[in-house]
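Hi D.,

Good news: the full-assembly prediction came through. Inputs first.
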Amino acid sequence: MSPDTPLSSQDRPSPLHRWFPHRWRDHELLDCGGGARLERFGELVLIRPEPRAIWERGMDESQWRRLSAAEFIPTGRTKGQWVPHQSVPDTWEIQYPLHTGKNLHFSLEMTRFKHVGIFPEQGANWDWIAQRMGPGKRLLNLFAYTGGASLAGRAAGAEVTHVDAIKQVVSWTRTNQELSGLDGIRWCVEDALKFSEREGRRGNQYDLVIMDPPSWGLGPKGEKWKLEEQVLRLVSATSKLVAPGGAVIMNTYSGVSPSALENMWRAVLPDAKMEAGELCLRSGTGQVLPTGSLLRLERP
Ligand SMILES: C[S@@+](CC[C@H](N)C(=O)[O-])C[C@H]1O[C@@H](n2cnc3c(N)ncnc32)[C@H](O)[C@@H]1O
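Then the structure:
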């Protein structure tokens, strides 16, 4: 083929979507690189490990140190401890302003797993959720953590079912619900896969099914969740829960590529419209930090 031959439609690269949250005022990724991220949550600037940030930092180390209130130092594969550089509160609050004018409130704390109770990049999904949901719509949030997606759906008036394996995490979301001036979310401390398969047997369906499966986890009765072994079962079970005209958001932070997400869903809902790509944060110093893979699907 000569260099001037036009590309056939098959050879043309299909777009990889990149989603960014645009509405944050209480969160900012100030810089990232050198295996870490420097970010502001409200008044508090924190340093956390970020294995995806394999490039050079935009600011020098002395600036990171001067700006930050605390740094998470890992002591094992999943655990570690926070080293304060200044006095830090036990808990504090931030808000996410939805496009509808409503604010989602989150109580944050520095956990020994490096998380603070929010995945800020998910803001890109919350506005999409609030746009699609409304009174009479049903939303199922699986592996729901502190419930940003549940709050966004409920703020729009939807009936929300929130499923997570850890009771304390569900209590944390209840606090966020109260702080956000909301009520009425249905709480389920359950294994997400078991819950989905049972809902399928009952013939229950939802207008939006959201899931963010980790690479491994435990259900409340010790049910083992291992993404690479069970993800197809999860996709098959949840595909039956999507009502006609309904939608799916599937996110993973576990190294599953956007194309792999698309392949799995194409096999179970071949007629659905799909967009797959990366959920990202843009730093103040100009880098794009890819945080995970995301698929959005709409069923005809
Ligand atoms: C990556 S977090 C989800 C983050 C969420 N998308 C957000 O934006 O806040 C994964 C969650 O899955 C939960 N989990 C792990 N294993 C589970 C299981 N077998 N069934 C239900 N939830 C589980 C964990 O407790 C955790 O809250």
